Amino acid sequence: MEVAIETPDVETAPNRPGRFRTNLLPYALIGPSVVVIGGILAFPLGMLVWLSLQHYGLRELIQHSGTWAGLDNYRAIVVDPLFRQVIVRTLVFTFTSVALTLILSTLIALLLLKVRQVVRVLVMSALVFVWATPVVVSVDIWQWMFDYEFGVINYLLTQLHLGNFIHHNWFDDPLQGWLVFVVIVVWGAIPFVTILLFAALLQVPGDVVDAAHVDGAGPWSRFWFVTAPILKPVFLIVTSLSTIWDFGVFIQIYVLLNQRPSADYFTIGIYSFKESFGVAQYGLGATIAVLMVAILVIVTFLYVRETIQQAEIA
Amino acid sequence: MIAPGTVQGVGAARARSAAPAGVRLNLWQRSKQLVYDAAGIAVAAVMLFPIYWMVATAFKPGSDILRLTPKWFPAPLTLQNFQDAIARPFFLDDVRNSLVIVGVMLALAIAIAFLAAVGTARFGFKGRTAFLVMIIWVQMVPLTALIIPLYLMLDGIGQIDSLAGVIAVYLAVVLPFMIWTLRGFVANIPAELEESAMVDGSSRMGAFLRITFPLVGPGLVATAIFGFIQAWNEYIVAYVLLSSPNNQTLTVWLASFTTNHGPQWGPLMAGATITGLPVVAFFLFLQRYLVGGLTAGAVKG
User: Fold this and answer.
1) DSSP assignment of chain B, as one string?
2) Strand, helix or coil for residue A309
3) What are phi and psi of B202, to 5 degrees?
4) Is there a contact between A108 and A201 (Cβ–Cβ < 8 Å)?
5) B40 and which of A119, A140, B70, B146 could share a cystine (Cβ 3.0–4.6 Å)?
6) In terms of Cα–Cα distance, which of A17, A253, A272, A252 is closest to A136?
7) Share of residues in chain B with pLDDT > 90 (%)
8) Residues 74-103 in A contacting B (C-alpha not used; CB under 8 Å)
9) Given this model, what pLDDT does residue A1 score?
């Protein structure tokens, strides 16, 4: 990647203009980063789009060059019933997980304001521990806890008389299997979102809430009309980040189902991965990945725009 | 990935307590407080239980693990599971690979990110805004989407199944966040400090090394730990790019634990504990920086 080197612009150089004989130093400083990020993130992104316009299978992989396909891959994907299923499923999963994460995290953050100091430290430590746990590790733990034979969850649910869960396999029925994945993803996402929301809650001025209280506002309207607007920027950030993460969910499903998920458990990320590395249809896989990024851009566009505007105001 | 500019000073502000000290609580307030505290403890217990269950299982003998009625506490304790996990093929190879990848990557990342942080925090130049926008934007692209072109790219230059390829990818993944955060740290140190050192006869480089560098130290540590955690935990890239088992990383080793011989829960949980341990340790260490400096730096932008 080339960086255009311009003549010194005194207006945009607030830091002691004219101190250096040349204006090349800042470019030399960011040069390595531009090369690495451009070469290893930006260039592959362009290559992904190019790949989606190619027939690129095993033969092309060996020859290191694809053959031009135009929009063939896109046409093939659009009429693929599995693709539509996978998209709807990924969106429903994302919406459910993000909504649950936000609701639970908000409740926990509000609760943290009310509890004693000792309890607050305890909850915060628990959140940090969960936050720090590597995803692959957490997937192994949940796999063990949801084990059909000796899993502690089947035991607990049976003991609580919520039904007979002895030797109950959660992954026979995809709906139940997805429920497990929602639990895993939400559990892993709660710490980050809760800690951010709690930090934001601390910035809500107490006297404003008290004033609303004096004016006769109930707890619900105090939250909705006083606290929530102040939390809005943080809500936007955590919503967009959670959407991006949950939409791209991969490891949880792929590792828990022992790297052989059935089509019932495909998310768009797994589908793209399977098309490429499973059946060596790199062109088709790239097409799905491009559509994945496109959907992500559409879904998070409003959030990202708002986030940028908020950042500019602040 | 943790977005820049979103982490606030958690400990900086004190929470408003529902019950100010010294005020006599009536029964109603007291029982309300009790309910809140109980709910808080329940939340902590539910969140922590999976982690507890991993550690407890790791220390149980096999006969205590495979029981229809679970044993809640690991007694008697055994280290057999840890021995089994470590004795499994390629464990030591993969620990070494993880350490090499993370170590080399971090050394490069710290140097490169620091240069860019100084460049964007201390200088105004054409393209600066474009560079910063690129850094934010590039973090939005999911790695799952990039893995196909990355694989073909590295395949084209013969870098599949080589640690160098993975190091390069991780480097690009952690750089944007590290640059953004370090930039905040450098920007927070007044340039006047350097200038006064220069007035006192120090060279520009000397002033930088003696004044700015030590002040950025905590920032370097904090961002390095972030980079460590991200690279240590990463799975997909390592799984795709490293094909031979003695070349893989610890997370790939752990993920493939159950596939070959069916689940062996004891050694698996021991392996998971070993994999998670350094991250938890580093993360707890990082908390101190999260509370203060990092946030101030990141938020200021």
Assistant:
1) -PPTT----TTTSPPPPSS-TTSPP-HHHHHHHHHHHHHHHHHHHHHHHHHHHHHHHHTS-HHHHS-SS--SS--S---HHHHHHHHSTTHHHHHHHHHHHHHHHHHHHHHHHHHHHHHHHH---TTHHHHHHHHHHHTTS-HHHHHHHHHHHHHHTT-TT-HHHHHHHHHHHHHHHHHHHHHHHHHHS-HHHHHHHHHTT--HHHHIIIIIHHHHHHHHHHHHHHHHHHHHH--HHHHHH--SGGG--HHHHHHTTTTTT---HHHHHHHHHHHHHHHHHHHHHHHHHHHTHHHHHHHH-
2) helix
3) -80, 150
4) no
5) A119
6) A252
7) 38
8) none
9) 38
> Is residue A302 within 8 Å of A240, Cβ to Cβ?
no
B106: number of Cβ within 10 Å: 22
Residues in chain B: 301
Which residue has tokens 């509890």?
A115
Give the pLDDT confidence score for residue A241 in this predicted structure. 82
Q: Which structure tokens are listed for B234?
A: 């990463």
| Among B246, B231, B233, residue whose Cα is nearest residue B168 | B231
**Cβ contacts of B3 within 8 Å, gap of 6 or more:** A237, A241, B139, B177
Inspect the interface and report whether the beta carbons of B40 and A251 lie closer than 8 Å: no
Q: Please, are residues A98 and A239 in contact by the beta-carbon 8 Å criterion?
A: yes
pLDDT tens digits along B159-174: 899 999 999 999 999 9
Q: Mean of the pLDDT values across residues B9-29?
A: 53
Concatenated DSSP letters of B57-96: HHTS-HHHHS-SS--SS--S---HHHHHHHHSTTHHHHHH
pLDDT surpassing 50 at residue B244:
yes
Which residues, in sequence order, are CB contacts of B218 under 8 Å at separation 6+? B185, B289, B293
Q: How is residue A227 annotated by DSSP?
A: I
A54 bridge partner residues: A68
Beta strand A54-55 pairing with A67-68: antiparallel
Q: Confirm or reject contact between B289 and chain A (CB < 8 A).
A: no
Q: Which residues of A fall within a CB distance of 8 Å from B16?
A: 113, 206
Q: How far apart are CA A129 and CA B279, in angstroms?
A: 10
Neighbouring residues of B111: CB distance < 8 A, sequence distance ≥ 6: none
- Is residue B102 classed exposed, middle or buried when 0-12, 13-18 and 19+ CB atoms within 10 A define those classes? buried
Mutation target vs B (from A136, A190, A197; most B CBs, 10 A cutoff) = A136
- Phi–psi pair at A115, nearest 5 degrees: -80, 165
Nearest to A26 among B125, B175, B176 (CB): B125
Alpha carbons A47 and A85: distance in angstroms, whole number: 27
Going by the DSSP 8-state scheme, the letter that residue A265 receives in this structure is G
The tens digit of pLDDT for each residue in A30-66 reads 999 999 999 999 999 999 999 999 998 888 888 888 8
Per-10-residue mean pLDDT, chain A, length 314: 42 46 81 93 92 89 84 91 94 96 95 92 90 91 92 92 88 94 96 88 80 83 83 82 89 90 93 91 93 86 66 49
**End-to-end Cα spacing for chain B:** 18
Residue A163: CA count within 13 A, CB half-sphere: 5
Considering only alpha carbons, which residue of chain A is nearest residue B67? Answer: A150
Contacts A–B by Cβ distance under 8 A: 321
Give CA torsion, residues A301, A302, A307, A308, to 10 deg. 60
| A121 touches B: beta carbon within 8 Å | no
